[in-house]
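Known limitations

Files may contain more than one protein. Parsers should not assume a single record per file. Below, a two-record file is shown to illustrate correct handling: read the sequence, read the token line, then continue until end of file.
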Amino acid sequence: MNLDNNKEWEKQFGNKTVAKDFEEREMHKGDYRNENSAYGWDFDHIQPIARNGSDTLNNIQITNIKTNREKADKTTFISENGKTYQVKRRAKTPKSEWAGGYDYSNKKYCIRELKN
């Protein structure tokens, strides 16, 4: 899939130049794929391709590069701050459980935080 990073950012965050991902890590619009920045971001496949996820817009979200690396190809993972997350089908997961208040309304899957 060939994505226009500026167009996808604007779809998700409007005209904001600073936003947060579901893990609440800050991202800066100008730091797309900037691995040397704490605010770098990239596209993440919510349901990993390695786990039968699709390479379509309803399976893509914007995340901080650090978040993306922590998640990798896992469907359940623990972040550096100790939170446990799990990929779930969006239709079966109440909006109140969507991680970090991230809007998954146009996605097939969502990420929810598991309470320990």
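...continuing to the second record:
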Amino acid sequence: MRDVVKISQLEFDKDLFANFMSGTTLDMLLCSYRGLPKGVNYMVIGDPGVGKTTIVLDLMANIGKVQPRARMLFVSAEMNEIDLSIYVRRYPKFGELNIMFIEADFESDDHAIADFESVLDEGWDIVAIDSFYELQGIIKEEENITLKKAESLLLAIIKRHNKAANRRHIHTSFLTIQQVTKSGAFVGSNRLKHMITAMMELRLDNPKNIYSDRYITFSKHRRGEVGVKLYYSLTRTGDVFFDDERFDKDSKLRHLQNEVSTQLHEYADRFNRLFNNIHNDEQ
């Protein structure tokens, strides 16, 4: 029998609401009160080559600079050591991140799911997975189970660590990169969608042109706004460049549009009240 509770009666540690800050404009999109919250699951999707891995690594590296005590882990199920070493050449700050490489190994008695759980049990503030689909596939093959079962195992692990079921009692936040279809749609079950706190999408202004402007937006967000765009560039060495000036202009324009919309609604309400009064008087 499930307990029935009132939200007003629930108590949480205040530290649970102290977000991780990156010191960039991206903090404003990650949460309405800025930064990456604790114990949440953010899915990152986008077309190939748009910069999903780079954005996630950059976010983690920046958080590490602002909050050096934050324990972060990048789980790579797609790229090997050589692949990621190229990232470090271009973005040296990535070199200080903790990375766990996971590859299918059918000859060893140690399986990916056991290694993954063992490392997570150490207790991490932020864990990034690149990608969920690849890790799910590795677990499927090694354990000889269905994709659905592999997904269930992964989601159960993530949920436990969201709720601080690890040795350090840390409410872990997960940044999971996920595959998309050719049309750019999210790949995953309804259960996976339900587990997601926010869906971060990396998109191109012109999907047919890989060189067109790129932006970050949220299509689902339990902790912030949806539809707001933050443009970025990967052409610079050392850091992801966020177009703060463009973001500020867009923010002011949205604020102005909201003010105009509010005024129009007020005028419409006044007109309706006046019309109803006139109509009542005539009757």
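Parsers that stop after the first record will miss the second one. For reference, the second record is described as follows. The chain has a mean pLDDT of 88.
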